[in-house]
Amino acid sequence: MPAQATTAEERRAAWVEHVRMEGASPFKELEWRLLGPVKQGGRVECITRAPGKSGALWVGAGAGNVWKSQSNGLTWTPVFEHESTFSIGDVAVAASDPDVVWVGTGEVLMARSSYAGTGVFKSSDGGRSWAHMGLDETHHIGRVIIHPKNPDMVWVAAIGHLYTRNSQRGVFRTRDGGRTWQRSLFVDDRTGAIDLVMDPRDPNTLYATTWQHERRPWGHRAFGAGCGVWKSIDGGDTWQRLTKGLPTGDDVGRIGITVAPTDSRILYAVLDHRSKEAEGVYRSDDAGASWRRVNKDRIRAGYDFCIVRVAPDNPEEVWVPGQTTWRSIDGGVTWTQVKGALIHLLEHDSSVLHLDAHALWFDPDNADHVILGNDGGVHVSWDRGATWLHLNNLPIGEFYAVGYDLDKPFNVYGGTQDNAALFGPIDHTPKVGEPDRWSHVYLDQWGGGDSYFTYRDPTDRQTIYYEHQFGVLRRKDMRTGKTKGIQPRGKKGEAPYRYNWMTPFCISPHEPRTLYYGAQRLLKSVDRGDHWTPVSPDLTTQPGADRQGNVPFGTITSISVSTLDAALFYVGTDDGNVQVTRDGGETWGLIDDGLPDQWVSRVQASRHVESRVYVTMTAYRDDDFRAYAWTSDDHGKTWKNLAAGLPSESVNVIFEDPVNAEHLYLGTDLGVYVSKDRGVTWHSLSATLPTTPVHDLFVHPREPTLVIGTHGRSVWALDISKIRR
Questions:
Q1: Which H/E stretch holds residue 359?
Q2: 212 with 227: CB under 8 angstroms?
């Protein structure tokens, strides 16, 4: 059964405990050091600029906090990095007072790895300090609009929960600077507001779009009758649904909307739809009273994007950022892809504009000046997209996993969301004006690529294993650049393999040519991936049709091979199974007695005691943000809870110190913790770290160094000598 969604009150209490533990920690003075990388960029969800020629540039990274630049992006300062969330939906600066800034939290990209926010925040001093202004249960905010003359009047498009139904969604309004809110537009508990724009000539005229969606671990429904376009002419007191010329019904998806700055009678909407004949760009020339589909060329919207912008000097020039970015100069009829010459601020091997754009800002006083935000970061053009400067100087890499080698100094390896796999030296610290010493393992033809577990071959320092989504595993010779695909495939007549989005694989600690790989079965290769043999049956619950969709489910998510016994290994699955074999895979036992039916985020065999094992789980896919962690000293027959001393934060990883068996390190969606008594008590290690999700971590076997891979703030390191003392 699904877990109970964590309430806003419980999340607030957990954050209070998080802050208390930071201040009470005996290790609060320990300083984390940023390792980078920087040059790869990361997902940018929103871009805005304070009014005036010298106004500050503001960027919201999807999972990487808010950044401010007073130098047109040459240098940046993180200004929203110690709040209760790191996940950003929108940033708005008041036109009447550039010191007033509002942040709507929770990613707009409603993907499987999108994080929930904690409502809206306000700064009255240009980002130096922040006040939480409520709307905690919205989880995801698509847009924030501030009245052009009254900074206390604000409208918010609230998407709502990603995985569960709730009522705090729709359009909200405050007239008193956030002290109180009124829900202005509401459809139902599955439909939220995703976009919101204001008529530039009349602040009482607003247009909103609503989106019905529902995600489960095994799929996403992004269409429904709740999707639509709405208009208010009284500042949100009342709303009218606009339907003339627009598709309606169960096949309509996400919709983006904009108003032409030079003629507010002209509106454009980009609409996702199950039918390619209905999907595309719609235009109204009568302030929304009627619409017509205008694109002759196919414009694919997709629930990931649905953004449309109009040039500030020409109502016929329309831009649609998406997987690729498109431009029309005839009112949306014909389209050309925006490409242009690309120049990187820091050295980068890509020569093409990165895919997956989520934000586009036009300078209202100079339409040639365009800023694009995509999965590769911030891109600036001063010639309407003919050339682009990639401001790849933000440390906002979204790492899924990190590993190491035994060089001196050692290197860190990791895979990122859409910015490929990279490796870099432990002694690197990014500095303005200096090169980034990290290197890409590969780049795809679009300048990035999703990557996950990344390992260097222990027998050949020039060979690296890396993977793409859904288990596409590769082995690369870094000398020649040649890559061989080594993903295992099922035999004819057998059930096809199911691959998790982030498929686990590992190198045996006993035989470096041996690899293990998790589908729904565990597979083994003794020749570096050239051939594979199953060493288990299906280790999942074999979920039925009620838990199957457009994403594979019933898959292995974590593998651990004991360093003390080559025949002992554990696996965990996305549907809550934990399994063990003590004879190299000949027989398996289910060891989940007393454990919940939740996604196994990590299973780890002890490095010190053969019968000891650790397990963590995450239930965020049920909007349950509690901590789940256990240990067993009898190969999983019985379990002891380790989470009693932790705040309610989803746990991603647990790691046993290779030197001291009593010391455990744990990474959550909000930081890092250490225990010196095997989980009886926990101490925060987050006092000098941004609020950031720690997806993976390790302690190097030779050096007293803890390394964390964050999903939004790249890679950090901490000297743990004091902890060990």
A1: strand 357-363
A2: yes
CA distance 228 to 599: 34
Domain residue spans of the chain: 1-29+591-725
What's the one-letter identity of residue 715?
V
For residue 453, name the pLDDT band (cuts at 50, 70, 90).
very high
Question: CA geometry: angle at 58 spanning 56 and 64, to 5°?
Answer: 145
User: Two tokens at 661?
Assistant: 């068996």
Residue 342: strand pairing partners: 388
* Helix boundaries (H) for 256-357: none
Provide the token pair at 197: 């724009």
**In angstroms, rounded to a whole number, what is the distance separating the alpha carbons of residues 392 and 344?**
7
Residue pair 572/557 in contact by the 8 Å Cβ criterion: yes
At residue 669, the 3 state secondary structure works out as: coil
Closest among 202, 139, 195 to 167, alpha carbons compared: 139
Which helix (H) or strand (E) covers residue 9, if one does? helix 8-24
- Tell me the pairing of strands 66-69 and 77-80: antiparallel
CA 387 to chain centre: 28
Compute the distance between CA of residue 556 and CA of residue 519 in angstroms, rounded to an integer: 6
DSSP state of 490: P
Alpha-carbon distance of 103 to 53, in angstroms, equals 22
Task: Write the single-letter amino acid at 342.
Answer: L
Q: What is the DSSP string of 442-488?
A: ---TTS-B-----EE-TT-TTEEEEE-GGG-EEEEETTT--EEE---
The count of other CB atoms within 10 Å of the CB of residue 409 is 12
Report d(CA 113, CA 587) in Å as an integer: 34
Query: What's the one-letter identity of residue 289?
Result: A
- Assigned CATH for 1-29+591-725: 2.130.10.10
Q: Give φ, ψ of 358 to 5 degrees.
A: -120, -10
**Cα(42)–Cα(26) distance, integer angstroms:** 33
Could you tell me which residues are beta bridge partners of residue 182? 173
Mean pLDDT of 152-175: 98
- Strand-pairing partners, residue 616, are 602, 629
Max CA distance (Å), the chain: 74
pLDDT tens digits, 324-372: 999 999 999 999 999 999 999 999 999 999 999 999 999 999 999 999 9
d(CA 6, CA 622): 9
Residue 554: strand, helix, or coil = coil
Residue with tokens 């160094």: 705
Stretch (H or E) spanning 560: strand 556-561
Cα(318)–Cα(308) distance, integer angstroms: 7
pLDDT tens digits along 613-672 = 999 999 999 999 999 999 999 999 999 999 999 999 999 999 999 999 999 999 999 999
CA distance 514 to 508: 5
546 CB-near residues (< 8 Å, 6+ apart)? none
